[in-house]
Design a protein that fits this description.
The structure holds two protein chains of two kinds.
Chain A lengths: L9 E3 L2 E3 L3 E3 L21 E7 L12 E4 L2 E4 L8 H15 L3 E5 L4 H11 L7 E5 L8 H6 L2 H14 L4 E6 L6 H10 L4 E4 L3 E3 L2 E2 L4 E2 L6 E4 L4 H12 L6 E4 L5 H10 L3 E4 L2 H4 L3 H11 L12
Parallel strand pairs in A: 3-4, 3-16, 4-7, 7-8, 8-9, 9-10, 10-15, 15-16
Antiparallel strand pairs in A: 1-2, 5-6, 6-14, 11-14, 12-13
Helix pairs in contact in A: 2-4, 4-5, 6-7
Chain B lengths: L11 E12 L4 E7 L12 E4 L11 E8 L3 E7 L3 H7 L6 E8 L11 E6 L3 H14 L9 E7 L18 E4 L6 E2 L2 H11 L4 E5 L2 H14 L2 E5 L15 E4 L12 E4 L6 E3 L12
Parallel strand pairs in B: 7-8, 7-11, 8-9, 9-10, 11-12
Antiparallel strand pairs in B: 1-2, 1-6, 2-5, 3-4, 3-6, 4-5, 12-15, 13-14
The chains are: A alpha/beta, B alpha/beta.
């Protein structure tokens, strides 16, 4: 089939993207790392690695554990911090011709406000994804991500400052009712819900009898979480009327199609990029050949 | 010390075929790949990130240091450790492989300096390739005769004498059980050799205890030491920050940065040994 020029662009909030396939936050760094390996500009976009107000060193190693069904990671939000991101990383995205959504997190309202205000006057990015769901850091970011009132407040603080950009709120699957948090983000003015972040898991070293990771809990990703992510996306899509960006365990074109069936308007590829860096491009090509596989409107069916 | 970083070409993804998997011993094999068009000449110390070809389960790619590379082939020295490396060993001639590369920082060029390179196990790969690289490139900045390789294995079987020309090329050989050459490990043989023939710098690659011992030798002798480290990796291009090791942090005024990490895949795998915090190195 050579229908490769089909329009599969997708509008998420005030921003149109050329197609609905993205790289997930934390997977592709700041955009420069994979520049010579895959043509990222052919994707709908990338979500850059989560940044915080101050630089963070991240968690002590080991940080990764391979499993037959994916991987556990405990990176701990290692990042260059807001100032270095704006000074050194943001300008690269323009050179790479990549449409980027910037992932951010913070521990307090004041920090979220300061980060949002720093981005408000800037160009060179298409939106912000609020990471309110990283399992690999102490305390507040994840805990707040479970609190609907807080999620609504943070969402509105950030959206107010970047009205012309798209604002996505990334939620944790480690909740009984993801709809509550998703509705709170919608009430706060989110343009989309990114669902889901990693599933909390752990593993033990049989030779030492101890947990693999210093923080014990770690983020489980990869093909093993696909059914969990699909169901959470389905739940969210039936809870809100804004678009849902589906994430979790996509390792084939068929997996991506299932997220559209579950109600997502776009997808993000994560861990599979490490084994199969061409996968996101193959998904774009498949959707161009079969635009009916993608979903053009947000909300539940 | 005056040294030159070898410029590293940008990595890309390549698809190639297996020319031959050559079993060297019960655990070790050489994987010879046809060199794909456009694959740049890799620097010694750089590595490939190989996909494990299977549809049965999830695998991260596996990093392997380049053992040799000439006009037609790329050779990797691999020790079989688990299911991923077993699948790679069982690949036959003509089967397809998929890798990213060349990746990572290389060992530096040290103009006019004498180097003792200490290798154990699969750590032989980058240090063997350094010797080949230097003699082939005929780079005026280095002299092949200034480079002495020391290699150690558990026993004679691990020296691969029938397949690799180490003895012929004047490498110094050690076995833990004394079945060939010096009885002891490569670091112990290096210590003996250092007393006989002082050098300006040490290179090392191999098991962590050996690397630590070489680091101690370098400190005692007051000479530079570059070490190639291993770790579990996911992306291999510096993006995911999975493969970090702790390095000594310079004080940053006003910043609460207690620890600092560098990636083995992108900042390394070759590091200046004096920045490595040996006691907190993760087990690969």
């Amino acid at each position: 089939m050579s229908a490769s020029n089909n329009d599969i662009s997708v509008k998420i909030g005030p921003v149109a993207f050329k197609n609905p396939v993205f790289l997930a936050s934390g997977i592709c760094g700041y955009g420069e790392e994979y520049a010579s390996i895959i043509p990222q500009k052919k994707l709908g976009g990338i979500v850059t690695k989560t940044i915080t107000l101050e630089p963070r060193a991240g968690n002590p190693p080991p940080r990764i554990r391979e499993l037959p069904t994916g991987a556990l990671n405990s990176i701990g939000l290692e990042n260059v911090g807001l100032d270095a991101y704006i000074r050194e990383k943001l300008p690269l995205l323009k050179d790479l011709e990549v449409d980027a959504v910037v992932s951010i997190t913070a521990e307090t309202e004041d920090e979220f406000t300061r980060i949002a205000e720093a981005f408000a006057p800037l160009e060179g990015y298409r939106g912000i994804e609020l990471n309110l769901s990283c399992p690999n850091v102490e305390g507040t970011a994840l805990d707040h991500g479970r609190d609907p009132a807080y999620v609504e407040k943070i969402t509105s603080i950030v959206k107010e400052r970047i009205p012309k950009k798209t604002l996505w709120v990334k939620i944790t699957p480690n909740l009984a009712d993801v709809g509550l948090v998703a509705r709170a983000a919608e009430a706060g003015g989110a343009d989309a819900i990114s669902a889901v972040n990693t599933v909390i898991g752990t593993d033990f070293d049989l030779s030492t009898g101890k947990p693999i990771f210093a923080r014990v809990g770690a983020g489980y990703s990869g093909p093993g979480i696909l059914p969990i992510a699909l169901f959470k996306v389905w739940e969210v899509a039936h809870s809100v009327s804004i678009p849902v960006v589906g994430i979790g365990g996509i390792s084939s074109v068929e997996d991506a199609r299932k997220f559209f069936l579950a109600g997502a308007i776009a997808v993000q590829v994560g861990t599979a990029l490490y084994s199969d860096p061409e996968l996101p491009i193959r998904i774009v090509e498949a959707l161009r050949a079969h635009p009916e596989w993608a979903r053009r409107e947000g909300g539940s069916t | 010390m005056n040294f030159t970083r070898i410029e590293i070409p940008k990595p890309a993804r390549f698809v190639s075929t297996v020319v031959e998997n050559h079993q060297l011993s019960s655990r070790y094999f050489l994987m010879v790949l046809s060199k794909p068009e456009g694959f740049p000449d890799p620097a010694p110390g750089s590595f490939l990130h190989m996909a494990v070809p299977t549809s049965g389960r999830f695998f991260l790619r596996r990093p392997f240091s380049i053992f040799d590379c000439n006009g037609e082939t790329i050779t990797l020295l691999i020790v079989e450790k688990g299911e991923g490396t077993r699948i790679l060993r069982e690949l036959g001639a003509g089967e397809t492989v998929d890798f990213l590369g060349p990746l990572g920082e290389a060992f530096p060029l040290l103009p006019g300096q004498r180097i003792l390179a200490v290798a154990g196990g699969v750590g032989l790969a980058p240090l063997y390739y350094y010797q080949k690289f230097v003699s082939r490139t005929l780079d005026k900045r280095v002299c092949p005769e200034c480079y002495q390789l020391v290699y150690g294995g558990r026993s004679e079987e691990d020296l691969f004498l029938s397949a690799i020309d180490l003895a012929d090329e004047g490498s110094l050989l050690a076995t833990d059980d004394g079945s060939y050459g010096f009885r002891g490990n490569a670091a112990q043989l290096a210590e003996v050799e250092l007393e006989r023939n002082p050098v300006d710098a040490l290179f090392s690659c191999g098991p962590t205890p050996m690397l630590k011992a070489v680091a101690d030798l370098a400190v005692q002798a007051g000479i530079a030491h570059w070490v190639s480290l291993e770790n579990r990796m996911a992306c291999a291009v510096g993006a995911c920050r999975s493969c970090v090791i702790p390095v000594s942090a310079k004080e940053q005024a006003g910043k609460d940065v207690k620890e600092r990490y560098k990636t083995v895949c992108h900042d390394g795998p070759v590091f200046n040994a004096n920045e490595v915090i040996w006691e907190r190195l993760p087990e690969p």
